[in-house]
């Protein structure tokens, strides 16, 4: 079983929506994979649950859990 990491250093570019600039890359990178483990490491101004909710909301249209 292979394991892949997708690491992003920015959640926004300019005035774009959260992760809008990266959605196509995320979708392409994942291929058929729709279930992920999210490590809420870089959320310095929000707690882990809020950060996880923000990610789920941002990726909802990609059907990612």
Overview of the molecule:
The chain is built from two helices and no strands. It has a domain at 23-62. With 65 residues, the protein is mainly alpha-helical. The protein has helices spanning 23-30, 48-59.
* Multimer state: single chain
How would you spell out the order of helices and strands? HH
Please tell me how large the radius of gyration is. Answer: 12 Å
* Silhouette: globular
**What proportion of the residues is helical, as a percent range?**
25-40%
> CA-to-CA gap between the ends?
20 Å
| Mean pLDDT score | 87
Strand content: under 5%
Our count of helices gives 2
Unreliably modeled segments: none
Provide the structure class.
mainly alpha
User: Strand tally, please?
Assistant: 0
Biggest beta-sheet profile: none
Secondary-structure topology with pairs:
Elements: H1 23-30, H2 48-59
Structure keywords:
65 residues; mainly alpha; 2 helices; 31% helix
What is the gist of this entry?
With 65 residues, this protein is mainly alpha-helical. The chain has a domain of 40 residues. Helices cover 31% and strands 0% of the residues.
């Amino acid at each position: 079983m292979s394991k892949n990491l997708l690491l992003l250093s920015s959640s926004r570019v300019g005035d774009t929506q959260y992760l809008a600039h990266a959605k196509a890359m995320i979708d392409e990178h994942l291929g058929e994979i729709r279930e992920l483990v999210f490590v809420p490491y870089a959320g310095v101004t929000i707690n882990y649950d809020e950060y996880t909710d923000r990610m789920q909301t941002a990726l909802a249209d990609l059907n990612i859990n």
